[in-house]
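FW: tagging you since you asked about this chain on Friday. Here's the raw sequence from the shared folder, copied in full. Didn't touch anything.
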Amino acid sequence: MTAHNTTLPLVVLAGRPNVGKSTLFNRLVRKRRVITDPTPGVTRDPVESLVFIAGKQVRLVDSGGFKLDKNKSNSRQKLMEQESFLDNIVVERTLQKIETADLIVLMFAAGEVSAEDEEFIQTLRPVQNKIIAVVNKTEGGRRGAEAWNLLSFGFETLIMISAEHGDNISQLEEAIASHPAIVEFYKNAPAASYNTDLENTVRIALIGKPNTGKSTLSNRLTASDNSIVSDIPGTTRDVLEGSFKWKDKIFVVADTAGIRRKAKVRENIEYYSVNRAIGVMDEVDIIILLIDAQEGLSDQDKKIAALACDKGRGVILALNKWDLMPDVKNAFNAAADRIRYFFGKMEWAPIIALSAKDGAGVAELLNTSVKMKEQLDTKIDTSAFNAALEQWQEESPPPSGPQTRFKIKYGVQISQNPVKFRIFVSRIQAMTTSYTSYICNKIRADLGFSKIPILLEVRSSTAPKKRSKK
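HL: got it, structure written out here
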């Protein structure tokens, strides 16, 4: 795997917690990509998205809130606490992004400058020429007079905005696009753009319960450390995207929050995280369901897989942490058989033994994903499909009783990715579930859809009678 699309300018939104970075990020990308919540420190991993700002395409990053540790002598004790441990990682990731940034949008909240703001400004002194200073939450001129005090820290200009209401966002966008770093980049590399060849792009989502190794796998695939990896459940909150090249394909991978049963989801932040993880199923081609090989399959795994199947997405069942399993002959076959037993209607879904930690099974995972994407994009000619329908009915005729008789008249493929067919039958009320399953299985086996779900819609071939007007 090689990193992809790292040549575009990197614009980082930075600042202490709760200054509105995520709200501004969502406004600039023009959709709700990251979770916004009054709770400080909601954003942990740097969330990146490609966006056009005033006609210039950039890589925009929402970094975690910068928290400064005042009690240095007690840092060892704090690191033993989960939240403090994660806070330290968030700060480290934020600084890493700032070091590589072409441009930094340094955000403050309207009001007095805090001691934390001042210390952050001092930290960024070496890169002050890359900073655009922005004061948020100034809708209607609110607390603007106090905000101008920031000029005393050496900023040439300040832009007063309201990320929530949209005030002066166009002014900020113009400032970003006209900044010397962005102008110089496009002057030297005017042809840089993001690969939008959808046929050559495979979009995958890593989904599963907490602590199944999603972030470890994401980091390995993208050759990065974008996703924070820890044993603390719920570490990943937002959907984190990255991209990489594999052979001649571009992969876009989404690392999602762990999905737990509704009864165990108590915090608003986790509720939004789970909803975003489920929502990403509508935006990808393939769901890679990570299952802890040691724990085995759970009811929650089955629900996730069923939901992906209902949406017509390709599903790969990845038994992760296989490196920790006993080295016993036929162990994988036994594990696969157990999964097939529980997933009775998903015998088409590939099962792969994987170790995200050491990379075993990753090549098979990607090769399988490429084959699945090809099947998802396949279009069957209508005449060929109807010839197949005739043959299948000859091989296994529908029931012939007076109350159960029906015939499939014709059919058509109505969509690709998801693959969906529509068939028209003479007596729709007589069409049985078992015969519908038979047709789905024949489509999969005979028409080249062996690794993906098939959506089949059954319609009546008889037009409804028009009611006479009185």
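FW: Residues 93 and 449 are 42 Å apart (CA to CA).
HL: agreed, and The mean pLDDT is 80.
FW: great, closing this out.
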